[in-house]
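Consider the following assembly input.
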Amino acid sequence: MASRAELEKQVRELNKTTGLQIEVTAESQEEITFALQQTRQLLGAYKEKYDKNYFLRSLMTGKIQGAEIDAYAKKLHIPYEEKRVLFLIETKSTVDDFMLELLKNLFPAQGKNYIVKMDYHQIVLLRPSEEPKEHVYEESMSIAHAIIDTVNAEAMSSVRVSFGRRMNELSDALESFTDVQMAMRIGNIFYSEQLVIPYNRLGTGGLLYQVPRNHCEAFLREVFCDELPAELDEELQMTVKKFFQYNLNIAETSRQLHMHRNTLIYRIEQLQKRTGLDIRIFEDACVFRIAMMVMNDLKIQDK
Amino acid sequence: MASLSLKGIQKVYPNGFEAVKDFDLEVADKEFIIFVGPSGCGKSTTLRMIAGLEDISGGTFEIDGKVMNNVEPKDRDIAMVFQNYALYPHMTVYDNMAFGLKLRKEPKAEIDKKVREAAEILDLTKLLDRKPKALSGGQRQRVAMGRAIVRDPKVFLMDEPLSNLDAKLRVQMRIEISKLHERLGATIIYVTHDQTEAMTLGTRIVVMKDGVCQQIDSPQSLYNNPCNLFVAGFIGSPQMNFQDVVITKEGDDVFAQMGQYKLKVPASKKKALVEGGYVGKTVVLGIRPEHVHDEETFIAQSPDSVIETTIKVYELLGAEVYLYFDVEGTQMTARVNSRTPLRNGDHAKFAIDMEKTHFFDKETELTITD
């Protein structure tokens, strides 16, 4: 049964938390129980609204905008004008308390770092960055690798990290979060072997990602003359990749593949028969490389 | 501790990139295995598959006979040490080492015992109350190792753990790791791109390139009997000298024609070249810099393998000297005694120790004579 002392304690806490002077009058036991329930709800809602995690999550997902940001930030003692880099940490398994604790201790709040759980697989680290502009990328890369290596070793979990450009103020968090999410998606499609995906190093993948699907399909039809190969056979793919890796050099590629140069030429000519592209010619090689990337993009989208 | 078995291991990423191809390896209990190779050769990916941090696309991986392909990393009983280790900045050395165990809710007394034992092994006992800021680079690295040791795993996986340290500290830590292996009696798999680290630490070395295992052997065998041109060039510093030579036969004698020089192939190498059908063909001759001699006695005893040149660069390294010069348009290196009178611009005579030469097929790059 709720007591008057309990209600008074709850009201004192509510006043302390909100900075307001709320008075509650309750006489009967029924009124006390009802008042206690109401003040608890009010306190819960207020705490949630003025919780740093809640605020930062809302900020990054665009639920808080404009002048509200500054006001909330002041209330929560989060400096508004501070240079920061936003890191998105994506986990293969579900984010657990172990991983959150680990990150919170690796990047303690005393250092003005903020760790925010976004969903079951994503955590954001907002970290101050005072390095000169030309060193920000290296610093961010090194932090991203430290996150990966520490989470791998301590939490035994597989993670990938993307990071954005340096933000000048808190209101840039929405844009930066959108950027890093996109970088992560592009990384998953085009650079799946990479563990760190910086937003400002997305290369051709970043460009192709922006192309609408119907344009991609039209491009593939054009390249493969309406006979879209479901998948190039593994051996041919490997040959082509090596040929690109060794700068379209027949002698070097055949040496690296331990293959006679005539075998390599035969394979390249087979590809030419299928696609009309002679990848020994730079321009055709470019078209074929892009076509391979587009095919992979569509394949992953379909999955 | 544990034995590991990797059979036909493959890693293909969703974007089609094939990082590791058909990788086979048997690791015995308490072995110290090194994965070495250039950047992007698949060594770290293989280690991450062993750890369970990357899915295995093909093949079977076993620890102590149990298939581990789909076992979660935390259930594999392994511990890892990486290059970019980070310590918890506001915690003491003790807490840094205990943190993972605390989060795993191990009993306090057990944690204390494990941390103190690890500190003893790593000579960190006196530093247990210090914070990371007050530690040197080498001490921090030892704390990172300590975090792995306290878990008392079956297997240790180390991915370039010394790469962030300066050269002097690296040498020191190399010795520490070697001692650690002896003290722990653990199975260790260690990834590095540094062939000196590989040669000094490993009981066996796996040389990788482009996702393919090139050779698995003891450091000594890799150095003396490289299976192909890549391994021959990768292992050894300064690297092995390579020269294109044409194999010729006059009566019973076989020669390696290197431009104007006709080098007599010793009986021990002759058979493989003749029976392999290399007479009249171009092959690659490899010779390590320490087997190119400038001593007059050696030159006098080896009239069939003398070359003449002009010294381009003289590099004194204290006890020895590296001499760089061109032969038939290709740069060669000789590693000679520091008492050599040769200097930059000097005309010099060298004799190649033909017993120590290696011959490689120019097309396949595989060894012919070893």
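Residues 241-361 of chain B form a domain with the OB fold (Dihydrolipoamide Acetyltransferase, E2P) fold (CATH 2.40.50.100). Ask yourself how this observation constrains the way the partners meet.
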